[in-house]
Design a protein that fits this description.
By secondary structure, this protein is an alpha/beta fold. Helices cover 58% and strands 17% of the residues. The protein contains four helices and three strands. Strand 1, helix 3 and strand 2 form a beta-alpha-beta unit.
Length: 101
């Protein structure tokens, strides 16, 4: 185990000393996301329509569903049955589905 820790420490030291590796591993992806998001996103947020089926109906599952509904990017509808959820996904009314069971 000590050999593995020494090897990891040596690799991290090499990684931190190479400025090109640091730039392209850490800073460049962030700059690319910001640039593409500002040029192509036009400041609009991404919204995902989905459907959720709560088969458990427990307090914990209701908290999970409410936590997902609190997200601004998710527009979740409730499904009464599994068949209703599958039909909505097949029709294309919803783009994602989740089930709490």
């Amino acid at each position: 185990m000590k050999a593995y820790l020494k090897l990891t420490q040596a690799q991290l030291l090499l990684f931190s000393r190479n400025r090109q590796v640091l730039f392209f591993s850490l800073l460049f992806p962030i700059l690319l996301m910001v640039a593409l998001g500002s040029f192509l996103g036009n400041g609009n947020s991404v919204n995902l329509n989905g459907i959720v089926l709560d088969q458990d109906n427990s307090g914990a599952s209701k908290k999970v569903v409410e936590a997902f509904r609190a997200q601004k990017t998710l527009n979740l509808d409730a499904a009464a049955s599994e068949q209703e959820a599958l039909d909505a996904l097949k029709r294309g009314d919803e783009r994602a589905g989740g089930r709490c069971s």
